[in-house]
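chain below, 182 aa
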Amino acid sequence: MANNLGNYFLNQRVQMSLTLGELARRVGYRNVSKGANRIARFEREGMVTEDLLAILAEALGIDMQTVEALIDQDRQELLRAWEEWVSEPVPMQLIVRYLAAVYGTVPLPQEITTHAQAEAFACEYAKQHRHRVCLALSRRHSVWIDALGQVEVRTETTPDDPNVPFMRLQGSRTRFLMRFGE
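prediction:
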């Protein structure tokens, strides 16, 4: 995962001979351990709030043009990696919604080789079993079918919006995704 921004901030901190605790104190954390952990996570994973990013940049003497350029570089690298990943061929998969937040997969018969055949099978399966289904045609394209066997919508994924079933705990940014083809 691209983390040019976090790495740059780490290098600046090291060049200034600052420990994580010293930097946490410098940016105003009363709980130094908590602040040091947040800074370490940013340096390691690139996870940071806008507020913390701004005060860290000021404390380390990093101008906002550099920050913006590094953010753009990370975003471009992530988009390239995502595009490569999403374009890789994977087997089609039928994902069945049994209950709210309870999903399973049903293997497609071996004789199904085309998207049209898979969609016809998925529609018939949904109708017979009275379950909503998601036919993942690829990592990029899915077809959502209601419990009556009717196509509801065809979706195309984006880096920020998966096109397979997922659930999110209320108040959490964490998504729990059905993984396939990995």
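Residues 4-86 form a domain with the 434 Repressor (Amino-terminal Domain) fold (CATH 1.10.260). The longest helix spans residues 64-87.
thats it, cya
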